[in-house]
Amino acid sequence: INEMTGSLIGVRGEEFEKAFIETMIAHHQGAIDMAKLIPSRTDKPELNKLGEDIISAQSKEIEMMEGWMEDWF
């Protein structure tokens, strides 16, 4: 069990939901931060495309989860 999933052990209901969303937002932000490094470190078009896709998809998911946090908690 890693640091992220460890915080979810033994919790249920609203406590789990909030912790899960907070953890996923942090996880997604980490992926975005890593993807932002790609253009300055490689010329491989496949990796650059992957980075762009990660930034786009995960940014949308963060926005969705932040909306849930506002609506539910």
From TrEMBL:
UniProt domain DUF305: residue ranges: 18-72
Pfam families in the record: DUF305
Transmembrane segments: none
PANTHER family: SLL0788 PROTEIN
Protein name as annotated: DUF305 domain-containing protein
Taxonomic lineage: Bacteria, Candidatus Woeseibacteriota
